[in-house]
TrEMBL record, chain A:
Domain Cytochrome c: 159-246
Entries under SUPFAM superfamilies matching the protein: Multiheme cytochromes (SSF48695)
UniProt keyword annotation of Metal-binding present: yes
Name the record gives this protein: Cytochrome c domain-containing protein
Superkingdom of origin organism: Bacteria
Organism: Chitinophaga varians
PROSITE patterns reported for this sequence: CYTC
GO molecular function term, any single one: electron transfer activity
From TrEMBL, chain B:
NCBIfam families: beta_helix_1
Pfam families in the cross-refs: Beta_helix
Name the record gives this protein: Right handed beta helix domain-containing protein
Domain of life: Bacteria
Keyword list, A-Z: Repeat, Signal
Signal peptide: 1-20
Organism this protein belongs to: Chitinophaga varians
Coiled-coil residue spans: none
Keyword Repeat on entry: yes
Domain spans labelled Right handed beta helix: 127-300
InterPro entries: Beta_helix, PbH1, Pectin_lyas_fold, Pectin_lyase_fold/virulence, SCF-Subunits/Alg-Epimerases, SO_2930-like_dom
Amino acid sequence: MRKPCLLLLMFVSLLAWLNSCQQKPAGQGNTGFAFKEKLSDYGFFTGELKALVPRKGVVRYELSTPLFTDYAVKDRFVVLPEGKAAKYTTHGALDFPDSTFIIKNFAYTSPEHKKVMIETRLLFKDPAGKGWKVMNYLWNDQQTDAVKWILGKKIPITLLDDNGEKISTTYQMPNTNDCKRCHINNSVLTPIGPKARNLNFTLAGQASNQLQQWAAAGMLQGMPALKDVPQLPDWKDSTHYSVDQRARAYLDVNCAHCHTKGGDAFNTGLFLEYEQTGHDQLGIMKQPVSAGGGAGGLDYDVIPGDPVHSILVHRMNSTEPGTAMPELARTVIHKEGVALIRQWVAGMPRQ
Amino acid sequence: MKRYNRYPILALALAGLLMACHSSQEDKDGYKTKLSFGPGDETKIAEAFLTLKDSSSIYLKEGTYKFDNLSIAQVKHIRIEGAGPDKTVLDFSSQSQGGEGIRVTDVNGFSIHGMTLKDSKGDLIKINKSREVVITYLHAIWSVSDSTSGGYAIYPVMCKNVLIENCYAQGASDAGIYVGQTDSAIVRKCKAYKNVAGCEIENTSNAQVYDNDFYGNTAGFLIFDLPDLSQRGGHVKAYNNHFHDNNERNFAKAGSFGSTWGVGNAAPGSGVVILSASDIELYNNRIINNNSSAISVVSGFFIDSNAGAKMNDHYDPIPKNIRIHDNEMQVGDSFPPAVYEHHTGKILVGLEQQLNAQDPARKNARLPFITYDGITSNVLTKGNAANPDSICIRQQQPNLFVNVHALQMGTKEWRPDTDVTPFLCK
């Protein structure tokens, strides 16, 4: 009996020790979920991976006004766990259930008009920590798969912009912390794009509204009547929306994830959410706080009627580090975006 | 029998495991993971920064490292350590994206010490929304001091409990050491040279700045409150500092903030500038050879007639409760040349000329040491109290003080006066 007792004692102390070893402070990496090594490991797509043909349960979606990233071609998908639905929210991203994946693929159009895959970004809502986690995957040269890649990468590419013009640039795949900078609000990592108002439109060639399709498919609960769902203007749609609406939608999507209370640019006092009404907060005759040389020797963020001397336009129209806005994930100037913001500022009555 | 034979193996395995566990246990500073790298390991270092676990320390051996940028986000209890500022050098001159060399976001318990950071495109180290931040023996330098330099060298913002000690900043086109929108900060035993502002405490509450040496900048030391920010500053003490020979041209990007807020306004030759900030005590400092104005106290109205519209819980344009006492002050025989090319500099030159024209008995003396714009809360209350905002001065020097009466400037009634009596500490 003595020896089995000893064995038991050793076993118990081993358990106790293992337990004590695991008592690390709460932080990233301590919860159950670990990202897989390759994009193909998840089985999100069927057939040739780069075709991004979703398997059942992987749902493609689009945004009425998307974030600009070097004229990248983006494919977006959401994967809800079996039998679960997202809950409708008026503000912010929809409330997705635990174990949701959001997939965003980045590619560019080559001068030969081929779609060249660059990177795939995943967001996963970890049931263990109840929080979102991010991971990036870098496509290989053979374009057969993408591998887990936390470091970020500078990738020289030549792409065609929206007008078919050739641009050579060094695409900057963000690193893990870069991803967090845009996705953190008040220290909580959160999706940016899939807000009800930015999903609330009917895609070209489809019979019904995207949100209604989600609700009908059981993917979305608690959605009010469609007329009561806010709608973010399509920044390109000059038929249905004013310059002001389009510009504000553009700023909301491209700037407001940082330029909001609790966001990465909270310290600047410049807040560009679509709902924002404060003149100072919108930068109108607002002096910068910490722009340094990035302000380009200009005094105000926005001078009504004077886009040439407005810092907002100046920084959007630059690719210099320290000046360029957004700071991350943009190495070429978004000509059409800058033109819209110029038009918006030029159209404001002079004070 | 066979079963019993396993005992020693199990015991050995246990012992091995225990040792493995112990080797990763806390060192004497309480860091559970300790990593060490040398020059050539840049990729591994960048990766280590991105995958840091709570309670980790990274040691960078002697040598020069080249980085695009580095970042740490959302972890606790992190230390970055070099072999010393003269030995471990992080060179960010190849930076191609982002606003800073090192970016720290949302870290509770961050310390960095013993290295030099140099030549980033934006700021050198920005620490955002972090707590218990300790920056020691850190040199943050731009090789060239001009408008191509980044804004801030050492830049904690929206933090809580910050210590900056034994650091050196050089070449910033804004402030070498800048503490913004932070609660509780200490800056001590630091040096700053050839920046636009040596050190700036902005919208920061409960700060102490002492035993520092800020010299050869455009302006030595600024305490500012600006509108539209997350918090109001105040309760700042600066003592036992040496602010001297801050007479350089203002190289904040040409025209930057020319007519409005910010460091572009600082006149060459400024020792200390207090703008819109309240509850400030400035004492026992040596403020020497800042050849325009040793100490300036100005309101937000001085630079923006619309400042009143920006008043709220987070901003009051009128400086209040300013205590200035027992400072040693000296000023040179003439203005620094750079002052004549600067917009607020020209105002100081004009002020000296006006005083001397008004009062021949001054015998063309220099501008007094302390310049107060005289824009008080009487502007808001329509009152006429002599010192409604509790400015308190206890200094022994002759030619001590001038009340600019800035609201009359440019009119025939303008008569700056040098009577300090209403402002003497009671």
